[in-house]
Amino acid sequence: MGMSTASPKKVVVFDYGFGNVRSAERALARVGADVEITRDYEKAMNADGLLVPGVGAFSACMRGLKEARGDWIIGRRLSGGRPVMGICVGMQILFARGVEHGVETEGLDEWPGSVEPLNAPVVPHMGWNTVEAADGSELFAGLDADARFYFVHSYAVRDWTLEIGNPTLAAPKVTWATHGEPFVAAVENGALWATQFHPEKSGDAGAQLLTNWIGTL
């Protein structure tokens, strides 16, 4: 059966007040997904893929996510092996905690680790950067090693400590980037994928990456 005859994958961009939902919607639609921006519980639960964007403060994002029951939706989807992808702060909140101005906020704790201020001469890390893709990465399939992605962030996960993760998810593949110091740029972990950079603002490379994600849904 050719691609053209298959119905497009249904992707919900989760609208909880903290993300560039319009640019994410446009980028996904451009690569052939059937996209809806919503916080509707049933739609978010039943979509082929759930995209969780995030901008701003970790603590504000977590609060907004919980108010929209996003924490519950993400947990339920993952326990059923249903794909979820986090972008920028939408990736950061998947970790155990965020530390901003000395204040610690609990994250979703899908992965251990802390989101902390980047140690770099210039912060925020803003602009294009290359990544060191994980071996066997599906997310970066078909992309050259010198492909560049668009980053805007002051905080990052600087240590990856996961030995044995959630037993229902495949072993994580971790992609790194460097700005002043190495930090986690992307993670692929069974049904849960995430990027610190913005694929929706990363031109052709970002489009390829979103195409790769949709291909797994």
Automatic annotation (TrEMBL):
Domain Glutamine amidotransferase: 12-212
Pathway in which this enzyme or protein is active: Amino-acid biosynthesis; L-histidine biosynthesis; L-histidine from 5-phospho-alpha-D-ribose 1-diphosphate: step 5/9
Cited Gene3D superfamilies: 3.40.50.880
Catalytic residues (UniProt): 88, 198, 200
InterPro entries: Class_I_gatase-like, GATASE, Imidazole-glycPsynth_HisH
Pfam families hit by this protein: GATase
The reaction(s) this protein catalyses: 5-[(5-phospho-1-deoxy-D-ribulos-1-ylimino)methylamino]-1-(5-phospho-beta-D-ribosyl)imidazole-4-carboxamide + L-glutamine = D-erythro-1-(imidazol-4-yl)glycerol 3-phosphate + 5-amino-1-(5-phospho-beta-D-ribosyl)imidazole-4-carboxamide + L-glutamate + H(+); L-glutamine + H2O = L-glutamate + NH4(+)
Listed EC numbers: 4.3.2.10, 3.5.1.2
Function according to Swiss-Prot or TrEMBL: IGPS catalyzes the conversion of PRFAR and glutamine to IGP, AICAR and glutamate. The HisH subunit catalyzes the hydrolysis of glutamine to glutamate and ammonia as part of the synthesis of IGP and AICAR. The resulting ammonia molecule is channeled to the active site of HisF.
Subunit architecture: Heterodimer of HisH and HisF.
Annotated protein name in UniProt: Imidazole glycerol phosphate synthase subunit HisH
The organism of origin for this protein: Streptomyces gulbargensis
